[in-house]
Every structure is written in structure tokens, then in C-alpha cells.
Design brief:
Length: about 250
């Protein structure tokens, strides 16, 4: 299949809502998480899941899904570097013991900036932010430092019946994907709030599948997108050096 050079990237992430994360327990979200995983699998989509490692292992049976490390309920701003190092090492070891590759973390941008050197050293290439950022984001990818990217959602679904800023249904699908010419990357984030999201998620995934069939979208994982961004930046840097040397 030939993919248009102007096709937009399409990536998906799944995270607990900020309210659910504040509660410190995610067991009430298991049923909803499994419903979302089933829909993604049915459409052959993969997602980056910002949920505890043990929950990721139980709700994401399909190959290709990625884990984004999710700090526990304590305030990330308060986490000392030594504590952060300990937590990061422990979570990566748990994931590795189950042969789960980790290249992403759910974190506030300033927290990621503070620990950027450590994250890159540990193989983290994506900092995933949560929430709708006050509406549809104009740019989804920002470089924090070499090899580390902040990938924020361009559209968010929460509470099953509500898209931001539009409502669920076909109109929301149009909001997520259009106009494609203005969006190099579409990052759909599905929030786990404990409420049924099947209808809204299905509508958007169906629209995405149709656009992929029309060669207007290219589905990727967050880590593969980050790798491409880094390679593109490296190529541009090399080209600039060669121009100056000429």
C-alpha cells in the first residue's frame, strides 16, 4: 500500500483521569480499560498506556501496545531525585521481567525537564502529558532535550459522552481528524474515568480506520514517532553542518 507523503501521523494514548489518579487506586477502572483494549484490538490499533505496570499486563493482551510509566499518587513536584531514581529503576525492572519495553513516562513537563538527563540515560524518549490542554493543541510534539520529546494530546475523550471541545459522535470524529492538512500529528488520548466510553471511542476509531484505508493517516506508536522525530532532527542538524562547511 502506498502512503501519501502528506498523510498525518496518528497516535493513541490511554491514561487514568487526573481525578482517578488522585484517588491513588485504579482497580475501579479495570472494566473500562479492558473495553478500550478490546476496541483497539478489534481495529488493529496499538496505544501507549499510562497505567501501573501490573494493570498494563492484565488489560492489554495484544502485541504492540506500549507502557508509559505512571508515578504513584504522590505529587511529582515533591519527589526528590533519589526517590525518582529508585521508583524509575523499580518500574523498569518490573516491566523488563515481563518483557515489556518502556520508552515513555507520564509526567508534568517541568518534572521531566528536571530529570531529563536521567530519563534519556534510562531509555525514555517520550514524556506524555495528560488532559486537553485547554482545547485542541496546535502542536503535539515539543523537544525537551536531545532524544526526549513531550507529546501532548491534540484531542481528549473523557466521561464517554463528552469530547473536548465538542460532544461525542460523528461530529467529534470530524473534530479529531480535520482538517488533516493542518495536523502533522494527531494524538488521541482516551481518559479512563470509570464511565462507559465504548460508543465514543468506537466512532473515532472507525473514522481513523477509514482515513488509513484512504492513505490519509499513518498509525504509529508514540515511541516510534519520537524515534522518527529524533532522526529527522539529526538529519536537519547534519544538513546544516554540511551547508556551513561548504
Amino acid at each position: 500500500m502506498t502512503v501519501s507523503s502528506t498523510a498525518s501521523n496518528f497516535v493513541i494514548s490511554v491514561v487514568p483521569s487526573l481525578e482517578q489518579r488522585a484517588l491513588g487506586s485504579l482497580w475501579t477502572l479495570e472494566a473500562q480499560a479492558m473495553q478500550v483494549a478490546k476496541l483497539l484490538d478489534a481495529y488493529k490499533f496499538v496505544a501507549t498506556w499510562g497505567i501501573p505496570t501490573k494493570d498494563f499486563l492484565s488489560v492489554t493482551p495484544s502485541v504492540g501496545n506500549e507502557l508509559a510509566l505512571l508515578p504513584d499518587g504522590q505529587d511529582q513536584q515533591e519527589m526528590a531525585r533519589a526517590k525518582f531514581v529508585e521508583w524509575l529503576g523499580s518500574e523498569r525492572s518490573l516491566a523488563a521481567s515481563h518483557e515489556v519495553q518502556v520508552a515513555s513516562i507520564v509526567a508534568e513537563p517541568n518534572v521531566a525537564q528536571r530529570h531529563a538527563d536521567l530519563l534519556v540515560k534510562k531509555g525514555i524518549s517520550v514524556v506524555m502529558t495528560c488532559g486537553d490542554n485547554g482545547g485542541r493543541a496546535e502542536v503535539s510534539a515539543h523537544s525537551i532535550r536531545w532524544g526526549l520529546w513531550k507529546l501532548q494530546p491534540t484531542s481528549v475523550i473523557r466521561n464517554g459522552a463528552t469530547w473536548f471541545p465538542l460532544r461525542a459522535g460523528h461530529s467529534s470524529a470530524r473534530h479529531v481528524f480535520g482538517p488533516l492538512a493542518d495536523q502533522a500529528t494527531i494524538h488521541l488520548q482516551i481518559e479512563l474515568t470509570g464511565r462507559d466510553t465504548c460508543r465514543a471511542v468506537n466512532n473515532v476509531l472507525l473514522k481513523a480506520a477509514n482515513l488509513i484505508a484512504m492513505n490519509k493517516l499513518v498509525h504509529k506508536s508514540l515511541s516510534s514517532l519520537a524515534d522518527e522525530l529524533t532522526l529527522g532532527r539529526k538529519a536537519r542538524s547534519t544538513e546544516s553542518i554540511l551547508r556551513r562547511a561548504a
